[in-house]
Amino acid sequence: MSFAGLFAASDSSQGSGDMKTVDAMFKQIMLAVQQSHHDVRELRQECAELRMANAALERQVREGLQYNMYNSRNGTPGFMTPAPPSPQLRPKLSPFLVHSIPAITTSPPEAVYYKPSPLGDNSLTAFPFGNRDIPGFYVVIPAGGAGTRLWPLSREGHPKFLLDVTLKGRSLIQATWDRLIPLTSPARTTIVAGPAHVKSIRDQLPDLIPNNIFCEPGPKDSMAAIGLAAAILALRDPDAVIGSFAADHMISGDEAFLSAVAEAVEVAKKDYLVTIGIAPSHPSTGFGYIRLGDKLGMKEAPNARLVSSFKEKPDARTAAQYIGTGAYRWNAGMFVTKASVLLDLLNEYKPDLADGLRTIAAAWDNEAEREAVLAEVWPGLEKIPIDNAVAEPAAAEGRVAVVPATFGWDDVGDFSSLADLLPAEANQPRILGDSHLVLTEQVAGGIVVPGSGRLIACLGVDDLVIVDMPDTLLVTTRARSQEVKRLVKKARDAGWKQLL
Fold first, then answer.
1. Within a domain: residue 385?
2. Hey, which end of the chain has fewer CB within 10 Å, N or C?
3. Which uninterrupted H or E stretch holds 341?
């Protein structure tokens, strides 16, 4: 063989060897990548297990704290402002309390891990992982009112939505935030509140973005509050779907709640004004009712129906008749709709109010201009609930839908309903605060709030409401607890405004 032939054979052999080396290296790389994917999957699984373990531990700690609150004088009574979710911030007393409470340190909320509301009943089972976010969905939380039927526990400067009235370690507005954040984000969660409550809300919700709290100069009822948020959000995102949920309501059944809201969003995308109807547990005379109409037949929202009509608070006999038909739901005041649709309805039924809100929204991002426009326009806006302004007339035209829901709901409207939310031994009064400050003998039912720090002793009285605060004492019965607001009016007329 010639030298050329030898060199050719040598080159061919070397090329073949290089190819084999490249193939081997490629196989090794692929094996390494596969092993890496396997390791990542294992890490994810370990993280998931750790999250579950942490959730279980958190619940055990929470239950332990709750037990201590009921059985120790060192607990945090429900009439005190609970700790915000930040280790840098400390719990603060309500402005009308004088004794101190221990500091509580809590962990900041995680960005992606769903932490159910502590006022719900699915703290471990409801969507522990996964993304529940609904793109384009904005939450509006109207935080108004003084909760006069819970006076003197609730005050104008420190209303019930800022209070931990169930001893779960979170105020009602904090629980509302916790409950809704899986569906949205802090960037799409807004609150409408009065100037007296803005600072307290920011203290309790440190994750609230500053330009997402809309301060209304004075109370104008729900239509102006929700309409203001809708007008501002419509400018920020013309396709925004908004959901309005009161800051001071109790929900049990987080999974059913999230599912109902998600279904309502799908209906709202079809240009309906959507409300969520609560299955009534008894013939209440304190709530409004929704009469169910025909099914909408929407694949994305199989439970949705048209609203036949809205009914005002009925008397006891009418309420019992409503329950008997099975065609009625409680009206919880939850509304989901496109911001643009709500403004169009408002423009149709209340054009002056719509014009005023659009004028304010147009100036909102310029602080100096905003204050001037608010001062000029806001006082002249009509004071009217959203039900009367748009929901009722729109329902008559077949433009309002309802998603019947199965979760538990209560508006914590008076001391009687609050008593039902607190634990107690059989036939014993409920105690909101330090149980060592309450002595009873032959006493059944009722609720006692030992807020002054002094001993309360009860003998042979049933179903009483006793609220003992440092500056005020209220004594009534559960049966008449709805009438406490009449006392508030009398106290105002008698010159006791500083106690309100």
1. yes
2. N
3. helix 339-349
d(C-alpha 203, C-alpha 270), whole Å: 38
In a domain, 7, yes or no: no
* Cα 105 from chain centroid (whole Å): 22
- CA atoms of 272 and 399, how far apart (whole Å): 6
User: Does 1 reside within a domain?
Assistant: no
Measured distance CA(361)–CA(345) in Å, rounded: 17
pLDDT of residue 46: 65
Note the helical H segments in 72-182: 172-180
Residues 57 and 86 grouped into a single domain: no
The count of domains in the chain is 3
| Rounded CA separation 464/453 (Å) | 19
Q: Do 368 and 331 share a domain, yes or no? A: yes
d(CA 267, CA 258): 15
pLDDT at 82 over 90: no
Rounded Cα gap, residues 190 and 92, in angstroms: 23
Q: Does some domain include residue 313?
A: yes
Task: For residue range 234-260, list pLDDT tens digits in order.
Answer: 999 999 999 999 998 989 888 899 999
Q: Give the CA angle between residues 303, 306, 312 to the nearest 5°.
A: 110
Sole residue written with tokens 């330009």: 211
Contact 245, 337 (CB under 8 A): no
Torsions phi, psi of 280, nearest 5?
A: -70, 135
27-57 per-position pLDDT tens digit: 888 888 878 777 777 677 666 666 655 655 5
Query: What is the model's pTM?
Result: 0.73
The more confident residue out of 61 and 422 is 422
Q: Residues 85, 234: one domain?
A: yes
